[in-house]
Amino acid sequence: MRPRALGFALLSLVVAVVLQTTLFVRFRIFTPDLVLLLSILFAITDMRREGVLVMAFTGGLIVDLLSSNLLGLRAAVFSVIAYLAVRTVHRVDIGPVAVAIWAGLLTLVGVVLFLLLGTLFGQGGLVATDLGRRLVFVPLSNLVVSFAVAPLLNRLITGRTRGLI
Amino acid sequence: MSSLDRPDHTLPTFVTLVVVAILLMTFDIRTDGEGVVGTIRGGTQTLIAPLQRGAAFVVDPIADFLDGVSDIASLRETNEALRAELARAQAALAEAGDDLARLEALEALHGLDLETTEVARTAANVIGRADQFDLAFQIDKGVNDGVLEGQPVIDVYGFVVGTVDEASPNTASVVPIQGSRNQVSVLVGSQTGLLSANPGLAEMRLDIYDAREPVREGDQVVTSANTFPPGLAVGQIVADAEPESTALTASVMPYTDLDSLRVVVVLAWPPDPTSVTTTTVTTVPEDEGEGDGEGEEGETTTTDEGTDTTQGDG
């Protein structure tokens, strides 16, 4: 991976963390999980698969460090979702709608996994807040946001648009 | 060279990362968020805080404007209700002022000198939270401003919010009582109980183990001591509850609206963090002799701080 691409990937993670922790926490219905979305969408770029996993882990860890949840909880979940993403990305090489639906579905899996792992590790009270809203709005919001973020991310990191033509 | 030309180490990388994450979780649980984990959390918050402050500076006015526009109808109704409440509060205040004047006169008459403790307050802005569903949030004041781990946090109306969970030099993380695993010792009327969070619910659970009388809908719940200064409003009883044997369980709706929190106040409580015991002394006038009942003038009360907030098992 080129240093420039790595720089853009890290920068996009930081921007996602800042936007998620300041802007999107103000909305009740439009509630994307930007860092999780990036963890998924890195898979459609030219980034190495191992790099996608490491970036997902790093993004999850940063959010863990800023939250009251267990350290490593999101890192584990985001790594699993990134792994699913790199293993299934070849199926969505058919257009932006497919990418958006794929990102939304993987987000749903991520939210469910987060709730399950969180409950298993004794974080039930913290992760189960607004359960219904979380299960519905986060995947839908990520689905919508991916229309804008996927091409942008691909251009920044890869320099071209894969699966989005 | 594209990623497809290289040997695929995806699975080993994935397994390694998951194992590392599980080790981190285990380590965090075992250290209870203290030590290295606390230091790393503090360091990350310190790094991200300036960016969050900058983003909040831009985002907050726009988001507030949008909130205001979308809530304009309900704001009018709320305004009406608040005007009525203000009128009632002003009447109550006038009555309380009269009582206070009488109390001062009586204290002067009997030569009482009650010791009062001033609690330092630090106002702080809420600068971010991990996501929309995380109850914990970051504030823009830290150790350098006198904010320390464990200190109570209230909102601008004086309602209990939670406690400081982590404090770095310039920022701190606050966990609201609704998301805390610690129980809060509270008073409902003259009965003492423990308030605990209900996972996933806004309402909290109140347990009174030596209940003598029922609690009624609308009864106010206030802090009793220790983690929080006594007498801070927490919330109100949601529905009537009767004691069963000597135990009573009720639901409490906290007053604080976590979604609308923009500014909070951190209380320097206990006043001396190194001290676990504070003593409140009521001076006995020499000519009045010994008191003979509970709460009698001349009684010396020692309050053991830090014991009635119990660690839950959640």
Summarize the structure in words.
The complex is a heterodimer of chains A (165) and B (314). Chain A is 72% helix and 0% strand. Chain A is built from 7 helices and no strands. In chain A, helix 1 (3-22) packs parallel to helix 3 and helix 2 packs across helix 5 (96-120). Chain B folds into 2 domains: 26-70 and 120-269 and 308-314, Beta Barrel (Thrombin, subunit H); 74-110. Chain B is built from 3 helices and 14 strands. Mean pLDDT of chain B is 79; it is low at 275-314.
How far apart are the termini of chain A?
A: 23 Å
- Regarding CATH, which class of the largest domain in chain B? Mainly Beta
Q: Number of helical segments of chain B?
A: 3
- Based on Cα principal axes, name the global outline of chain A: globular
- What spatial order of strands do you see in the largest sheet of chain B? 1-2-5-4-3-12
The poorly predicted ranges of chain A are: none
